[in-house]
């Protein structure tokens, strides 16, 4: 077992963690990034990315994350192949984290960038057609379905917002919900029902995504009526699963403040958690925007605030040492 000590420990290697690392390493904080089970984060499971600033042409998600990692390493970040299984933050700085490998990581500041995963239905065709007609992010992928017939699956705020957003690209949007009423806020429901491009299919459960992953992609959905049990097919070229996200915060339960959905709570407009010296950035603290560029932005903020925290901490330690002499 090895102990890795640093001024800045970062958990997570998506856009938030790597942006924090780039700023942190350049500020001399010897950033260590523990990568977790998905090195590079969520963008490594997508293909075309067209909205990350700086690239005129469509780029590939995995390529973007390789470049981000290379940039982080180039400025001095140490990348660790490990997954954190326990953290000790109760005693304040320095913070300790234990990896699956048995190694221990100690950081004067801790940056949490563990992200959030979209919830999926877990039915046949969903995984194989992901990126080929099946998506969990209308803001990310809606543009690719211009003029096409699309479906949104879900009944909460996210589903209704995704359906409304998709009307920017498609004239034929259908919201599919397994019950006969929506959980979404009334104002969103009013906008949805009044929208001429949106229809709603009630009491329908998606049982399978249909199409050819090696050919034309998604062609439709197999639906089951939740009241009669009757089976039907719904033709569409795009399907957006909008049944929520799960933030990766299991590790921090009872240790950091969280909201009812498990997202880390930060001081508004900052990445500061309720424990001084622990910062959160990216999707793990943001259930509203959930974009690579916003994750990178809050990663930058976390590193800048971490640097200020360390400067104060080191000044206090220096003063205390002088007083003791
Ligand atoms: C299919 C798909 C397509 C998308 N397309 C776009 C797009 O076109 N444009 C766009 O802007 N956004 C897009 N997004 C959203 C974007 O990917 C996310 O908003 C962004 O990746 C969030 O970054 P993050 O760094 O906060 O977290 P993530 O990217 O989720 O990274 C989380 C990191 O934390 C690590 N981790 C988790 N737990 C642990 C642990 N215990 N120990 C160590 N590490 C851990 C993981 O391994 C991972 O490296 C897409 C998302 C998906 C799923």
From TrEMBL:
<comment type="subunit">
    <text>Homodimer.</text>
</comment>
<dbReference type="InterPro" id="IPR008255">
    <property type="entry name" value="Pyr_nucl-diS_OxRdtase_2_AS"/>
</dbReference>
<keyword id="KW-0521">NADP</keyword>
<dbReference type="InterPro" id="IPR023753">
    <property type="entry name" value="FAD/NAD-binding_dom"/>
</dbReference>
<dbReference type="GO" id="GO:0019430">
    <property type="term" value="P:removal of superoxide radicals"/>
</dbReference>
<keyword id="KW-0676">Redox-active center</keyword>
<feature type="domain" description="FAD/NAD(P)-binding">
    <location>
        <begin position="7"/>
        <end position="299"/>
    </location>
</feature>
<dbReference type="GO" id="GO:0005737">
    <property type="term" value="C:cytoplasm"/>
</dbReference>
<keyword id="KW-0560">Oxidoreductase</keyword>
<protein>
    <recommendedName>
        <fullName>Thioredoxin reductase</fullName>
        <ecNumber>1.8.1.9</ecNumber>
    </recommendedName>
</protein>
<dbReference type="InterPro" id="IPR036188">
    <property type="entry name" value="FAD/NAD-bd_sf"/>
</dbReference>
<keyword id="KW-0274">FAD</keyword>
<dbReference type="InterPro" id="IPR005982">
    <property type="entry name" value="Thioredox_Rdtase"/>
</dbReference>
<dbReference type="Pfam" id="PF07992">
    <property type="entry name" value="Pyr_redox_2"/>
</dbReference>
<keyword id="KW-1015">Disulfide bond</keyword>
<comment type="similarity">
    <text>Belongs to the class-II pyridine nucleotide-disulfide oxidoreductase family.</text>
</comment>
<dbReference type="GO" id="GO:0004791">
    <property type="term" value="F:thioredoxin-disulfide reductase (NADPH) activity"/>
</dbReference>
<dbReference type="InterPro" id="IPR050097">
    <property type="entry name" value="Ferredoxin-NADP_redctase_2"/>
</dbReference>
<keyword id="KW-0285">Flavoprotein</keyword>
């Amino acid at each position: 077992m090895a102990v890795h000590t640093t001024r800045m420990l970062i958990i997570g290697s998506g856009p938030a963690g790597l942006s924090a690392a780039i700023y942190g390493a350049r500020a001399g904080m010897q950033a260590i990034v523990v990568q977790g089970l998905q090195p590079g984060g969520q963008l490594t499971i997508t293909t075309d990315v067209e909205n990350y600033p700086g690239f005129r042409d469509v780029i590939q998600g995995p390529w973007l994350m390789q470049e981000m990692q290379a940039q982080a390493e180039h400025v001095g970040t140490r990348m660790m192949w490990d997954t954190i299984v326990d953290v000790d933050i109760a005693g304040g700085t320095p913070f300790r984290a234990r990896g699956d490998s048995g190694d221990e990581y100690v950081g004067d500041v801790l940056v949490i960038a563990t992200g959030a995963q979209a919830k999926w239905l877990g039915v046949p065709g969903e995984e194989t057609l992901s990126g080929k007609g099946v998506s969990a992010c209308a803001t990310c992928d809606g543009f690719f379905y211009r003029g096409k017939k699309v479906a949104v699956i879900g009944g909460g705020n996210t589903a209704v917002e995704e359906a409304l957003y998709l009307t920017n690209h498609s004239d034929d949007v259908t919201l599919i919900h397994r019950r006969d009423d929506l959980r979404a806020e009334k104002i969103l429901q009013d906008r949805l029902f009044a929208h001429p491009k949106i229809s709603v299919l009630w009491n329908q459960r998606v049982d399978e995504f249909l199409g050819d992953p090696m050919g034309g992609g998604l062609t439709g959905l197999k639906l089951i009526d939740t009241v009669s049990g009757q089976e039907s097919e719904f033709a569409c070229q795009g399907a957006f699963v909008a049944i929520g996200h799960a933030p990766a915060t299991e590790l921090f339960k009872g240790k950091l403040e969280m909201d009812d959905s498990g997202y880390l709570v930060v001081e508004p407009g900052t990445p500061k958690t309720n424990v001084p010296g622990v910062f959160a950035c990216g999707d793990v603290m943001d259930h509203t925007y959930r974009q690579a560029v916003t994750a990178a932005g809050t990663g930058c903020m976390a590193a800048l605030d971490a640097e200020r925290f360390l400067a104060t901490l080191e000044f206090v330690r220096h003063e205390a040492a002088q007083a003791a002499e």
